[in-house]
Hints:
By secondary structure, the protein is an all-alpha fold.
Amino acid sequence: MKARVKMLAAMLIFGSIGLFVRQIPIESSVIVLWRSVIGSLFLAAVLLLRGQKLNLPALRRQLPLLLVSGAVMGANWVCLFEAYRYTTVSAATLAYYCAPVFVLLASPLVLKENLTWPRLVGITAAMAGMVLVGGREWTGGASSIKGIQLGLAAAALYATLMLLGKFVRDLSGLETTLVRLVGAAAVMAGYLAFSGIQPSLPPMGLPLAALILLGVVHTGLACYLFFSAIEELPAQTSALLSYIDPASALVFSALFLGERLQLPQLLGALLILGGAAFGESFHSKRKETV
């Protein structure tokens, strides 16, 4: 239950990311760099305050896996933040959340987890809800289509990140998150240097405050909760609970960005939440596999 609470909290925090990214007028790759740096510093401070020592032998064994995860995470964020610039927050987030479908379909092959019929029903309902919520964005103009394509690219990277997380052993969620963020920061710094992009800070005031919150809350705290949870939960459970993120993003974007909700979108959100709840609730009662 504790792992599920962590996952739920992480998804609600992630659901509000688009609100903050929209307030930061700098390159997406630069946002990802600063997000990774701030998040790393925050988690390092937490480690120091708690007096927790790093498990260096385990870190050395799994360093390549964690650095690859960090690189995947950085690329994932760049694609997602770019998607926010080309389409609505709700449409970009919902395209992004094709990732749980990829995880559910891959988990029997990669992780040898059985795909149960309640989870298959739940994911089908959630996908139908995504189509309804996306509405006209799925068949919109070139800009909107590009945003959705970027969201789908981020989804593939996110699914890869979730699957890689299942192979991490003997490390706390705090340790693995810190190393991943350092890896993401290193990869993004190299990318910016190669591209000739200057890692400038946003203007003082709301943009800078949004970046700091993005680094501390949406990165340091939320990533810690997320990675701690996926190391404890089955991949299919993580995938289903992930649908809380797009549903919450839909509500936040309607409340704070004025992205209006139509009846089909409301029905879609209900399908997303209902599908996730059905797949998770009935899985523990029925062990039939598809």
